């Protein structure tokens, strides 16, 4: 079971890692409301791809859960589960929970 | 800061490794000092301290994910993927059931995609990777009796060309390789006159060999081939 605060921390740390990889500076403030997709997003589309891979890696490394976040449910959802830090953290929790229920 | 590729022993995943070309390639790359991980739907009798076998159907998304996770946990890296797993059904299209067609597409196309996707997620962390997806000459030569198999392998070529553009920024090269007929279980049921007809239309009029495959893979996966991507090489003069 992953605490929600831990999921948020993973997403934030992953964003920082994606910026570090490109050599750019991450925004000074990253919180649950930070936008990841669409207007005002802090990442471009390839940055989001890198972010998802990084989050999956950290969830596995820190919690031993091997998840695929870009799953059928996520990609067909009316609202993107990647749109903000908080929403992505919730998606991480839901995906890990489904894994446990499977 | 992520590390670049080092001189540590490289790690290779070969799908469809239980027999035929896949089995040969396992032994070939073990002899060259790779850690080799193989997969197939059944068990393997290949015993080597540097070989690990996974009983995995490449069309099973969850199973592929777990296999790659297991590899990553033990090795921390994947350097090379050889996507050799495939199934064929040599039937006239008028005698091909939908279920047979679906299964070929599922293993040959979706299976290749799943392995590439999950391995690439590991490769991008080191900004290095080599992916070789196996196709066949029966697609470019439009061999009658192989319509769905050829279509699935033509899809692999197109998939690989685009994959090269999607993964190139992370130092991952993606290429395809199409062998001429090799005497494996996959073609053992094909009438000899059909095989002869194919061979007689090649520039080099002989059956392919397992080493032909290893030779092309060697070229594609060489660290020096970092600017060779999105390409397809067919044996025997086919283009």
Describe the protein in words.
The complex is a heterodimer of chains A (102) and B (239). Chain A is mostly helical and 102 residues long. Chain A has a single domain, classed as Orthogonal Bundle (Non-ribosomal Peptide Synthetase Peptidyl Carrier Protein, Chain A). Chain A has four helices and no strands. Chain A is globular and about 40 Å long. The model of chain A has no long low-confidence stretch (mean pLDDT 94). Helices cover 40% and strands 16% of the residues of chain B. In chain B, α1 crosses α6 and α2 packs parallel to α3 (98-123). Mean pLDDT of chain B is 94; it is low at 1-6. The chains are: A mainly alpha (102), B alpha/beta (239). Chain A binds chain B through residues 20-21, 46, 50, 53, 56-57, 60, 66, 68, and chain B through 1-2, 61, 65-66, 69, 72, 121, 124-125, 169.
Mean pLDDT of chain B: 94
Q: How many helical stretches of chain A?
A: 4
Q: What about the largest sheet of chain B? A: 7 strands, parallel
Distance between the termini of chain A: 14 Å
Radius of gyration of chain B (Å): 17 Å
Number of domains of chain A: 1
Major sheet size, sense and barrel closure of chain A: none
Helical residue percent of chain B?
Answer: 25-40%
Instruction: State the CATH topology of chain B.
Output: Rossmann fold
Overall 3D geometry of chain B?
globular
* Topology of chain B as a string of helices (H) and strands (E): EHEEHEHEHEHHE
**What is the name of the CATH class of chain A?**
Mainly Alpha
Q: Which two chains share the most extensive interface?
A: A-B, 10 and 11 residues
The helicity of chain A comes to: 55-70%
- CATH architecture descriptor of chain A: Orthogonal Bundle
The strand order across the widest sheet of chain B is: 3-2-1-4-5-6-7
User: What's the Cα radius of gyration of chain A?
Assistant: 13 Å
Coarse shape of chain A: globular
């Amino acid at each position: 079971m992953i605490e929600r605060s831990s999921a948020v921390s993973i997403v934030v740390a992953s964003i920082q890692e994606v910026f570090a990889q490109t050599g750019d500076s991450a925004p000074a403030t990253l919180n649950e409301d930070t936008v990841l997709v669409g207007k005002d997003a802090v990442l471009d589309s390839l940055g989001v791809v890198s972010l998802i891979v990084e989050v999956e890696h950290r969830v596995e490394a820190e919690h031993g859960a091997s998840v695929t976040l870009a799953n059928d449910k996520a990609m067909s959802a009316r609202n993107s589960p990647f749109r903000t830090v908080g929403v992505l953290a919730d998606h991480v929790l839901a995906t890990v929970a489904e894994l446990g229920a499977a | 800061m992520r590390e670049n590729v080092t001189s540590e022993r490289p790690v290779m995943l070969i799908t469809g490794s239980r027999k035929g070309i896949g089995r040969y390639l396992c032994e070939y790359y073990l002899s060259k000092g790779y850690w080799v991980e193989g997969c197939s739907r059944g068990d393997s009798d290949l015993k080597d301290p540097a070989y690990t076998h996974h009983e995995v159907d490449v069309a099973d998304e969850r199973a592929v994910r777990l296999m790659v996770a297991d590899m990553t946990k033990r090795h921390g890296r994947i350097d090379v993927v050889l996507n050799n797993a495939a199934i064929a059904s040599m039937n006239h299209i008028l005698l091909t059931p939908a279920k047979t067609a679906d299964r070929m597409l599922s293993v040959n196309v979706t299976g290749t995609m799943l392995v590439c996707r999950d391995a690439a997620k590991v490769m991008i962390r080191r900004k290095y990777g080599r992916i070789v997806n196996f196709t066949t000459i029966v697609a470019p030569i439009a061999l009658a009796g192989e319509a769905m198999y050829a279509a699935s392998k033509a899809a692999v070529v197109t998939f690989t060309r685009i994959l090269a553009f999607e993964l190139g920024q992370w130092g991952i090269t993606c290429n395809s390789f199409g062998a001429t007929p090799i005497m494996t279980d996959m073609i053992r049921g094909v009438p000899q006159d059909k095989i002869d007809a194919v061979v007689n239309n090649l520039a080099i009029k002989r059956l392919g060999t397992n080493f032909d495959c290893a030779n092309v893979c060697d070229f594609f996966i060489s660290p020096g081939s970092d600017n060779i991507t999105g390409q397809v090489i067919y044996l025997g003069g086919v283009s």
